[in-house]
Amino acid sequence: GYANEVGESFRALVPVPVVWASYGVATAYVTADAIDKGQRAATVHAQDPTRVGVAVVDTFVWQGLASVAIPGFTINRLCAASLALLGTLTRWPLPVRRWATTALGLAAIPLIITPIDRTVDFLMDSSLRKLYGTPEEPPKP
């Protein structure tokens, strides 16, 4: 699910199609996870196709935001800013700046996961999940 963050970290070193391919891998993971959650919901709630649809949509949107869009954007901007700053603040040769930027991007991945996941939980709970709620919770007054 985090293949695109690795791709974004290496953007300064690899051709752009390699970065795009990393988004393809991440999107395939998100899609597979949504299908898996839908199949599990279908097993448990065979008579309720709405719950199956909600499981698929909720998983796809959550994973799309938390595993692809927001982390990809975050690492992209972090690496772009660090490459620019290193160019301004140091006299390092370009290959060294590019590798330093890649290392920074890779090091940032584990640090951004939890805050992004929590933020996406909050966003989903505050928006999309209010539309369909969860079957286990009582109706809101």
Written overview of the protein:
This protein has 141 residues and is mostly helical. The chain has three domains: 46 residues; 42 residues; 39 residues. It has five helices and no strands. The longest helix is centred in the middle third of the chain and has 41 residues. The relative contact order is 0.14.
Binned, the helix content reads over 70%
Largest sheet: none
* Principal-axes shape call: elongated
Number of domains: 3
Number of strands: 0
Low-confidence stretches: 137-141
Mean pLDDT: 93
Tally of helical runs: 5
Quaternary state of this entry equals single chain
The ordered string of helix (H) and strand (E) elements is: HHHHH
Report the β-strand fraction as a percent range: under 5%
Report the structural category.
mainly alpha
Q: Gyration radius, to the nearest Å?
A: 19 Å
Task: Give the N-terminus to C-terminus distance in angstroms.
Answer: 37 Å
Organism: Xiphorhynchus elegans
Family: Belongs to the MTFP1 family.
Protein name: Mitochondrial fission process protein 1
GO biological process, one term: mitochondrial fission
Break the fold down into its secondary structure elements and pairings:
Blueprint: H1 3-9, H2 16-44, H3 49-89, H4 94-126, H5 128-132
GO biological process, one term: mitochondrial fission
Protein name: Mitochondrial fission process protein 1
GO cellular component, one term: mitochondrion
Give me a quick take on this structure.
Belongs to the MTFP1 family. The protein has 141 residues and is an all-alpha fold.
